Amino acid sequence: MAMLSIDFAPLFPWEILGPLAGVGMLILIYGAFRRARGLTWRTLSLAVIWLSLANPVLVEEKREARSDIVTVVVDESPSQDIGNRSSQSAAALEHLRAKLGAVEGLELRIVRTGRAGQTVKSGDGPVDGTRLFDTVARALENVPRNRIAGTLVITDGQVHDAPKTGKPGIHTGPLHVLLTGRRNERDRRLTIEHVPSFALVGKKAPLRIKITDTGTNQRAARVRFSKDGGTEYSVTVPVGKPFTIPIEIDHSGSNIIQIEASPVDDELTTANNRGVVQVHGVRERLRVLLVSGEPHPGERVWRNLLKADPSVDLVHFTILRPPGKQDATPVRELSLIAFPIRELFEVKLTEFDLIIFDRYQRRGVLPALYLDNIAEYVKNGGAVLEASGPGFATGMSLYRTPLRKILPGAPTGRVFEQGLKPRLTKAGGRHPVTADLAGADEETPRWGRWFRQIEVTKRRGHSLLRGIGDHPLLILDRVGKGRVAQLLSDQVWLWARGFESGGPHSELLRRLSHWLMKEPDLEENDLRAYLDGKNLTVIRRSIEPNQTPVTITSPSGKEHSISLTEQIGGRAKGSLPAREIGIYRVSDGIHSSLAAVGHLNPLEFADMRATEALLAPVTKATGGGIRWIADGMPRLRRVRTGRATSGPGWFGLVSNRDYRVVSVSEAPVLPGLIILLIGLGALMLAWRQEGR
After folding, report:
1. Mutual orientation of helices 672-691 and 39-54 as an angle, nearest 10°?
2. What is the pTM of this model?
3. What band does 689 get if pLDDT is binned at 50, 70 and 90?
4. How many Å separate Cα 96 from the centre of its chain?
5. What is the DSSP letter of 241?
6. Using one digit for the tens of pLDDT, what is the confidence trace for 448-475?
7. Crossing angle for the helix pair 14-33 and 39-54, nearest 10 degrees?
8. Interval 552-568: pLDDT, tens
9. Are 186 and 216 in contact (CB under 8 A)?
């Protein structure tokens, strides 16, 4: 296609030609005023001279027409999998392919949004909800404005980044919407209105929910809930009103609560009947009772360790002499306040999270009744750590008391008084209390020696450290709901003093005490799952090698079985691509875990009804239209710029008539010789007429 136009290529700047034209006009006006002869020829000669200086040229442009671009955005979010929405979407896309592909001068581009694992533009991770306009912006950011014919969107209308003002942040042309689904769909939705991010262990966390029904007239709904995949409870909740459920937080760390509302007949989907929340349990204060026997250098190690932890409230009970022993201390120097033994070991015993016996032996101070209380306290969920001294091998041993019922090691009566290096057992290499200690991975750890070990016979539990003759040095056991540990040496203080380079005493004792107090991260048999990039990673800790496959249930209910690969430190690891957004459930038949991909309660599942309300302001602002696919496909028209782009039963696509200039050629309108002849001829005629 060629286009002709006239342009100027002046020999002098217009700043000079303009004043020259003005001077010429003044001369002609003056001549006309004086009625000078030959004025016409003077005018012609001046005009020819000025035009020769302005140098008019004929410009020929060869243009190449550029096609307009129409973008079709297909919503592939999980809500599009409901009912026949996906088939409606596919049929609409094929219809648009056929119609738009046959239009000359129109380029069709198809982009998709809402896929699992899609990330936002900044790459911060999986998106929450259908980010349709973010996809539109990326698709059109490199398209020239004068080539955009329009944008067609195939969606159910549940778009979570629709501009509130109705105006998109980028030029889209007329934005038309084809809606999948049907009008007035019946659905029940569970909304979690409030949940605290953390709560104190032993207290109840208020969980406020709301049930919303559309298309039904039910007044109440049954709601089931469970914590950490445990016992399931149910309550009746009024529909349409907020309702608070108290959830008991019984352990520190992550508490995952699952909630599900009963479905209604002919419901659109049950995916938004469920919700998952996470409450982090924190202990207000960890109360520890330290019962010390005979004074020794290691007593300060326990006291310093516990005092250094700001979350620990320490009560130190030191026995200097039996109450029946007499000495010559003057009465005025005796304490007038009796030590509250009964209050500690009977009345307030259950308030302690951990009781430590440090080289304690029977001395008639604690009656058997109190020791029996401690044994029952452990069975009901408490914890005891017995750090043995030489007295444990004698007849005054705690093993000769009611505590025998909970202690995993029975004394043989022998005490080894020689140098020894603690080493990990097979179980110790897998248990989180000892597996990752500094230097523990070596056959002979580079730790300092101890010089005393009490020999015991292990009756139950797991031996994590071994000493002389591979006899147990550290035994851990579970009794009822509680936990017990025996450290069969009183020489750990040598590590604290740095003897022979010392050892990881602080980390060992800290892990040991926190395992006894049921720290979730120190569980020896545990199953965890988390999102690692685009994969769901599963880690299982086990005290014994375990080849049992793990079953992963995706948010849509599909089950996948994977085998875990054995790692160091008692861990086994496996992964699976996370292609869906929502809650994944992981189980090996004994342990279970939950993992969230994206968000615990995705926006995508908050409301899954097809609607035109969210996109109506955008279509109005851009001149587009909305049509339900169930009502039939609209007609497609090309319209000129400035004309209406939508109407009843039709969508318009702008014809921009854009082009690209291929080449440009120029030719002078007034050749030099012709200009010279015309100018001279006009001057001669003017001179001749004036001479008459």
Report:
1. 160
2. 0.68
3. low
4. 36
5. S
6. 999 999 999 999 999 999 999 999 999 9
7. 180
8. 998 778 899 999 999 98
9. yes
The vertex-82 CA angle with 597 and 240, nearest 5°, equals 80
Q: Alpha-carbon distance 460 to 406, whole Å?
A: 10
| C-beta of residue 192 within 8 angstroms of C-beta of residue 277 | yes
Indicate the pairing of strand 526-532 with strand 659-668: unpaired
In three-state secondary structure terms, 277 is: strand
Contact (Cβ atoms closer than 8 angstroms) between residue 654 and residue 641 = yes
SS3 label, residue 674 = helix
Strand bridging mode 253-261 / 274-282 = antiparallel
pLDDT at position 126: 52
Confirm if 652 and 174 have CB atoms less than 8 A apart: yes
Q: Which amino acid would we find at residue 668? A: P
Short-list 319, 292, 294, 352, CA closest to 513: 352
Provide the pLDDT for residue 692.
Answer: 57
Any idea which residue has 């004043």 for tokens? 19
Percent of the chain topping pLDDT 90: 42
Q: Kindly give the interhelix angle for 505-516 and 299-308, rounded to the nearest 10 degrees.
A: 70
How far is Cα 147 from Cα 657, in angstroms, rounded to an integer? 8
User: Is there a contact between 227 and 160 (Cβ–Cβ < 8 Å)?
Assistant: no
**Is the Cβ–Cβ distance between 523 and 468 less than 8 Å?**
no
What phi and psi values does residue 173 have, to the nearest 5 degrees? 70, -170
Joined tokens for residue 240: 């349409």
Q: Which residues are within 8 A (CB) of 14 and not within 5 positions of it... i.e. 6 or more apart?
A: none
Q: Which of the two residues, 123 and 676, has the higher pLDDT score?
A: 676
Please name each of the domains of the chain with its CATH number. Answer: 2-64+661-691 (no CATH), 67-183+610-657 (3.40.50), 187-274 (2.60.40.10), 286-328+335-520 (3.40.50.880), 526-597 (2.60.40.10)
Q: Return the pLDDT at 385.
A: 96
d(CA 153, CA 268): 22
581 half-sphere exposure, CB direction, 13 A CA radius: 26
* Rounded (10°) CA dihedral 429, 430, 432, 436: 40
SS (H, E, C) 508-574: HHHHHHHHHCCCHHHCCCEEEEEEECCEEEEEEECCCCCCCCEEEECCCCCEEEECCEECCCCEEEE
What pLDDT score does 125 carry?
47
What tokens appear for 125 in the block? Answer: 């991770």
* DSSP letters for 384-445: EEEE--GGGGSTT-GGGSGGGGT-SEEEEEEEE-S-B--EE-TTTTTSTTTTTSTTTTSSS-
Q: What is the largest CA-CA distance in the chain?
A: 161
Q: What are phi and psi of 300, to 5 degrees?
A: -65, -30
Q: Report pLDDT digits (tens) over 413-447.
A: 999 999 999 999 999 999 999 988 887 766 778 89
Q: State the chain's mean pLDDT as an integer.
A: 85
- Residue 165: burial class (beta carbons within 10 Å; 0-12, 13-18, 19+): exposed
More confident residue, 23 or 625: 625
pLDDT at 121 over 50: no
Spell out the SS3 assignment of 12-48: CCHHHHHHHHHHHHHHHHHHHHCCCCCHHHHHHHHHH
Tokens 């298309």 belong to 215
